[in-house]
Design a protein that fits this description.
Two copies of one chain form a homodimer. Chain A is α/β, with parallel strands linked by helices. Chain A has helices at about 20-35, 45-55, 80-90, 105-115, 120-125, 165-175, 185-210, 215-220, 225-230, 235-245, 245-275, 285-295, 325-335, 365-370; strands at about 15-20, 40, 60, 70-75, 95-100, 130, 150-155, 180, 310-320, 340-345, 350-360, 375-380. Chain A has three domains: about 15-185, 3-Layer(aba) Sandwich (Rossmann fold); about 190-295, 6-phosphogluconate dehydrogenase C-terminal like domain (6-phosphogluconate dehydrogenase C-terminal fold, Orthogonal Bundle); about 310-380, Alpha-Beta Plaits, CATH 3.30.70. A five-stranded parallel β-sheet of chain A has the order 3-2-1-4-5, with helices on both faces. In chain A, strands 10-11-9-12 form a four-stranded antiparallel β-sheet, with helices on one face. A three-stranded mixed β-sheet of chain A has the order 6-7-8, with helices on one face. Mean pLDDT of chain A is about 85; it is low at about 1-5 and about 300-310. At the A-B interface, helix 4, helix 7, helix 8, helix 9 and helix 10 of A face helix 4, helix 7, helix 8, helix 9 and helix 10 of B.
């Protein structure tokens, strides 16, 4: 791994990271690369040693005099709230944050504890975080100093958070390359229910239908199924814990999905009863698909804001070493920047299709030049 | 567009193509490039002239003496059955096929007509087709001779189809570069309901939730949502017609989705009632996600069969012209074949992540060599 570029570091160490999995160890690596003192805690001695071995920090047990100024709780989602409360008590001078992907439960846990103990400093010193930097692997072995680079980092303060605590967490987000944005806990949880948690369950429900599918059906699978079902490969244990903590907002979205689903089933069953020769109108299909058109159009593209209107060039790619590389080399020679790229394959085939998104102003000459160089371009309607 | 490579052509022309949209015009282009005589019919004179202008064939009205030996019906899905029956009657010496994505309704229409007229030759001369070669644009303007190249082409004969008719349709599929496979109509329709029609509706239902989403939620959208909702951009009119013709099998799959959805909602609502601090066990989430894991693992990878176990290399790509090209050039220089590729972006960011799938045996040296050349590689657990 490579260190992040040198620049002024705003985080005042030492930093204690509790939980040395993917997120904790990546944070440690990144902070260490910037010269910040990092201490580590983990319930698992093995995990702790692994994180130490890759250079993510020093076990806190080996530094009994350490006085962390910032504590980052990066434990599994179902114990985060308890760990945050313990950290606030154990490190009474420190600002405490956590990196869990659901925030309301953690904030409530802190406020309850502050009320129970009558210690308002507990609440003042806590500010939540949600770095949007998951990946498909877990553990310190998958850690990387660049994990947070360029990713949104949601900062979740509450009414009693002190400005100093908010600043400390903003500094952390910025120091590891994250893009800080602020939201309150409920808004955050509803947002991630919509853009992350509900999509996860929808994808899993679809993929679950394939368990007993005949092999011949899977042979007809195309890119549409592959994309829609991709995140169904996510870790059930991790997600069960995440969803348990955000059950209300997710249930609300799923209830809205169920209303559409009921409507679709009623209309499709009626069409089936009329017989295949007179399927006729399936109003619910049209309605749901039109809403889907409008919804997907709102997802920001690569550069944020409204989706960019790139032109698309489709090129056939023979399945031989270097062919895709040759295409990109030649696009580079023509000075075309690739804004986005999708590769499509058919099962069993030795040819692929590259869909290259580029500046519409360059489409005509790029297409002509690639054809001149022998590429097979699939032309578009416009 | 480029002609397909020269090779012996098995299709005995002339071929009449009824319906000169994307599929019809692409077929015409491809057959013309191989020297086969192609005639065209279309209810829209404008569409017909466009297809003629791009070289897809000659309007049948201009060749009153033409005697087509093969008729391909490529009209919109809701009129295919009627068009096939008319074509069988109008061209009594011809084999007739169609390219609709639902087959049972068309077969039933032909068998009904054969029974009604007492003309068994109608049934003998009909064999259905489903070339799996859709795309997001429609019309002859988007046509391409390579549209079917390397794609599965399902051949759907029925008990009364003559062997000669089956051979003629196999020849057509092979001549345009398709990969022929055979299925009966009901099996075909259930397969596409599972791998294409149900995924379409599931993706649309998810994307429909975004219509009224706050902008800040969409700012947190990541690759998971983008992938799951991508096909929600499909054309509602076309899909309403397709789904009307396959309503029964699709309704059956959606009913199974609803059983899981009901279960998820019950468990999530119960967890929400227990409160965010003790979400506790959400058994349905775990069950559905585990089934999703098993289901998605059955989708064939690029080369067919079980998913290949490629190694994955994650590389940070600065958003500057030629950077992606430079990566592929350098992978080519190291002689690494890219088996698959996914680009990931965060909204508003000027850096992307390329996930390159490659031969596991090459992972170590490719990774080391790229780092030596200054690329930022994100290491994996293994």
């Amino acid at each position: 791994m490579t260190p992040t570029p040198a620049r002024p570091i705003a985080t005042a160490g030492p930093v204690l990271i509790i939980g040395s999995g993917l997120l904790g160890a990546s944070l440690g690596l990144c902070l260490r690369a910037s010269g910040v003192d990092v201490y580590l805690e983990d319930a698992s001695p093995t995990a702790l040693r692994l994180a130490q071995d890759i250079g993510a920090g020093t076990p806190l047990v080996d530094a009994p005099d350490a006085r962390p100024r910032l504590v980052v709780v990066a434990t599994p989602p179902d114990v985060v709230d308890a760990c945050v409360v313990r950290a606030l008590a154990a490190h009474p001078q420190a600002v405490v944050t956590d990196v869990a992907s659901v925030k309301d439960a953690v904030v409530e846990g802190v406020l309850d504890e502050a009320a129970r103990t009558g210690d308002a400093s507990l609440a003042r010193r806590y500010v939540g975080s949600h770095p949007m930097a998951g990946r498909e692997r877990s553990g310190a072995g998958a850690a990387d100093a660049d994990l947070f680079y360029g990713r949104p980092w949601v900062i979740v303060s509450h009414a009693q958070s002190s400005p100093e605590a908010v600043l400390a967490v903003r500094a952390l987000a910025g120091d590891v390359g994250g893009v800080a944005l602020e939201m309150d806990a409920r808004t955050h949880d509803r947002c991630v229910a919509l853009v992350s948690h509900a999509p996860q369950l929808v994808s899993s429900m679809l993929a679950a239908r394939l368990v007993d599918a005949p092999a011949e059906a899977l042979g007809l699978a195309g890119q549409g199924l592959r994309d829609t079902a991709r995140i169904a490969a996510s870790d059930p244990r991790l997600w069960t814990a995440i969803l348990a903590g955000n059950a209300g907002p997710v249930a609300e979205i799923l209830a809205a999905v169920r209303a559409d689903l009921d409507d679709l089933i009623v209309h499709l069953e009626a069409a089936a009863e009329r017989g295949p020769l007179r399927g006729g109108s399936v109003g619910a299909v049209n309605r749901v698909m039109e809403a889907g058109n409008r919804g997907v159009a709102r997802i920001p593209g690569k550069h944020g804001g409204a989706p960019s209107r790139y032109a698309e060039l489709e090129v056939l790619i023979p399945d031989a070493p270097g062919e895709l590389g040759r295409l990109f080399t030649e696009l580079g020679e023509i000075d075309v920047n690739i804004e986005d790229l999708v590769l499509e394959h058919s099962a069993g085939q030795s040819v692929g299709l590259a869909r290259v998104m580029l500046d519409p102003a360059r489409l005509g000459d790029a297409s002509a030049e690639l054809e001149r160089r022998g590429w097979r371009i699939i032309p578009h309607a416009g």
